[in-house]
């Protein structure tokens, strides 16, 4: 069913109109338009203990090779392709540019090729609500925020009915490829569709593109996600404004909860950008098994220490996932999730008796607004609606109670604690994307086209070496199965012990460079108000091409290193060619035996530490 | 007591550092540094019926002339001056530039002149907490947001004890002038200090500068306030992001409350910038005497009409002052204010019995969170803490109830109403100021210096013709008494019937051009989602010098028109010089008699309409 796209009634104005004229930068490999997809080594799942499970679940798509895009001298005429595209995850700045990049590459290679947009995301796929995209549709959406070109609905293609509907759509529309735009959930779906389509003889290829503000689709192949850069910059601007406000009025503590789902990448980046007084990363709390009481005391101790220096203001950042990271809350939420699955008749009044005594004790202790929020409808993936749980208000209230107690007991002599709470979420998702996100998304869109054109399926479009200039970016594709793992340690009634293989959200690495930057500075930022204001996103002039601190700090370019290693191996082969001196061969043999031994030990399942989240 | 300024520990980084290097633009009159203060006509109070009251309360400062700054050819050496400066109002982007402008003008005229900053605003004045400002202090605060150079405390210099403390400070510090930075309250205080100082023989002159995000210190002499431009731009960026989000997900209604105190200028500007679906201006609601029920129904009718077009999303803007504009709320708040003044033992449980039956009925109807918020401590001027009253949640809840009722009654067939509530306040006040605010504030700071240097007191520094390029701006000063009026119609127990003369907040003019722009477009914006995204504030490139729509739409330049009128009068005199033909004299006489008659009627107190707010 081809439908009319809703007209964006207004012509773009002002900065939006200017941005629509911006030409995204692309790396050299894509520039000439003569692009070859070159195959590299075959892949495996990162964790050896998951390899069997992943290969069994994905027999057709497991183990495919990495691929790289390289420019070719000779032009090859591309055959006519029909490609479908849908926004499956949540709004993330830059999403539109994936589509414009895909469109421009497709049309530049063959003007008869067709890009079909699914209107309303996954539900648009199931219902075959489509529109054939033209330059006219796209012109007002180039470099613009939001997903309003096509809209979106739910995040999941999960049931076999939905998989069948998607297949029927691809077949009815004669799609050569389907490109799905989203985060971990969407890309797990993409892998599942690719596998099912191969299994059932459907010829449509499936390609995923990493787009999520949460920044948690992150692994050896993916350095960051489209939208993370913009969103963190918008939040950081606001946090910094509030830091300045706090320092000017010197009477409030601001508790700011930040969007970002279960992982705390957004909060970490915003802390590094704004240098706010305190950030409580979910990963830290989970790792040190801090209770709600511990978290409260940690904040109170900080307020007391600042009070002793005459400082009665401050800014505390909280990731929305914090609440799930507090062990007793995690347990409570798992129990509630289980009960909600079994029975819809749960409410604030009757739930306590159905919980374990430990969970019930915590639930009964909570203020009524949190009690209600914990029982709200679940997300489509069954998880809690983190955006709706006002953790910042809960903590502000607990801290207030404790500071009052300390004051009465004569332990705290500073001014009365005054909190102002904020949740920064929706006000960044629709932002005009930064130059970085415009370029990255557009490059990914073009890359997705070339992967589809090469007949690959079950791949994620990737761009490596992002912290360097665009001229050094490297485009390619990585099999989604190579990013999969299997979650264990799920708990609570109604939850299975071992999950299916999936592309999971990557948490903040507590051994990583960005977190190290934070811990080095945390105590001076806490006490000395070294606030930093990155200001609003700039599109021209100095600062317009700044990247996130997280991206710049991280030791990325996994693929570059794989290539470097291959060069070493080739060099060894070259040196020890038959005819080489015996002692050289002996030295090579001895060294390689040692390397192999070390790597074997390091790669054994028992060697690898794991955390329950 | 000279004190050490707290060190801003961090050197500025990134965009903040770049901004510190920005050189604000100033109009030609200030450029050479040879500036003359030229006196114009004497002034009067705008409303004839207030003239007697104002002239009695301000016998020494009433009726002073307008003054204009003009550049002179010859340089005059300025004597050494000691000037004090304080942030008295709330944080507003650009406040620091008033100080840097003042400092640069003062030092350029005489390097021995001294600028003394009061640390902690009004309380710093009373306690004589001072710091002699140097270029070293200022360099990290040039073109930066916040008030953290000096900080601030309360908004008021009110009691005679406080006036005496301020006088003692000015005398002890041998100040030639005191410059107060703030909005209507601060500038009423400035007028009061100027009058009291003259009365008691204190030689310190007092100059005010119009700085408030609320944009409500606005009259014939003041076209806009420092900070309004930046704040509206930050809010509009976020509102537009949310509009984009709403249009992408198509499932939420966003209720966004905006800071701006009793007047709705901020909400009006943000509505014009973002073209959100709906804005409820306090002035409209008050003018049409809409009840809480009416407001709720108006929103519900809009949601229903949109639902019938298949639209289940939208963005509704609410000024924080809305609640005071609803007549029954206004009456309730006045009663509560009266009770709080008389008796501190009021709480949620015992208040109903002390209210009139009408007020009690409304109070009892409200949800508990609003009940509590209505009883919070009052502002220093006795008004409600509007920032703490979650009107957006109250309305979302009432709308939800009504939409559920309509659904059950079969009147509404759209998707379930889902609201997400936001309050945008503190996240803009500390923003890096826009180029406009940097230039305007810096120009005002320089102007304040020249007014002080000319020995004027009880004046507000003004810059006219702001909608034109800086090269056409005109600097001057207007007596604060000329902006004063007397509020009548206060009500409730413990409130006097007639207030003192004061510089009052100017409400949105429902006959003005900006409001007309809104009403022309309101119905298409409501139904057609013509959202506009102005994007983040830019400092370089196209769009960096955009001004607010309000400023551009308004018919400003009152002072220019006064000058134009004077030119007409002079021309008439010129034409009818003795010796002119009799019929020319006769025509002039006849025309002037008619003009005079019309103006006399128009200026009579009975002619001027008044609203009770």
UniProtKB/TrEMBL annotation, chains A, B:
GO terms of biological process kind:
fructose 6-phosphate metabolic process; photosynthesis; response to glucose
Sites where the protein binds substrate: 212-214, 251-252, 259-261, 320, 426-429
Catalytic machinery residues? 214
Per UniProt, ATP binds at 154-155
Protein localization: Cytoplasm
Enumerate the GO terms in the molecular function aspect. Answer: 6-phosphofructokinase activity; ATP binding; diphosphate-fructose-6-phosphate 1-phosphotransferase activity; metal ion binding
Q: Catalysed reaction(s)? A: beta-D-fructose 6-phosphate + diphosphate = beta-D-fructose 1,6-bisphosphate + phosphate + H(+); beta-D-fructose 6-phosphate + ATP = beta-D-fructose 1,6-bisphosphate + ADP + H(+)
- What SUPFAM superfamilies is this protein classified in? Phosphofructokinase (SSF53784)
Mainly localized where?
cytoplasm
Q: In which pathway does it act?
A: Carbohydrate degradation; glycolysis; D-glyceraldehyde 3-phosphate and glycerone phosphate from D-glucose: step 3/4
- Pfam families under this entry? PFK
Mechanisms controlling activity: Allosterically activated by fructose 2,6-bisphosphate.
**Annotated Gene Ontology cellular component terms:** cytoplasm
Q: What are the EC numbers?
A: 2.7.1.11
Instruction: List cofactor names only.
Output: Mg(2+)
The keyword ATP-binding is annotated on this UniProt entry: yes
Q: Where in the chain is the site Important for substrate specificity?
A: 185
Q: Where are the residues of the annotated region Disordered?
A: 29-51
Phosphofructokinase domain ranges (all copies):
82-449
InterPro entries given in the database record: ATP_PFK, PfpB_PPi_PFK, Phosphofructokinase_dom, PKF_sf
The record describes the protein's role as: Catalyzes the phosphorylation of D-fructose 6-phosphate to fructose 1,6-bisphosphate by ATP, the first committing step of glycolysis.
What is the similarity comment for this entry? Belongs to the phosphofructokinase type A (PFKA) family. PPi-dependent PFK group II subfamily. Clade 'Long' sub-subfamily.
Can you state the subunit structure given in the record?
Tetramer of two alpha (regulatory) and two beta (catalytic) chains.
Protein name stated in the entry: Probable ATP-dependent 6-phosphofructokinase
Q: Which organism is it from?
A: Physcomitrium patens (Spreading-leaved earth moss)
This chain is encoded by the gene named: LOC112274296
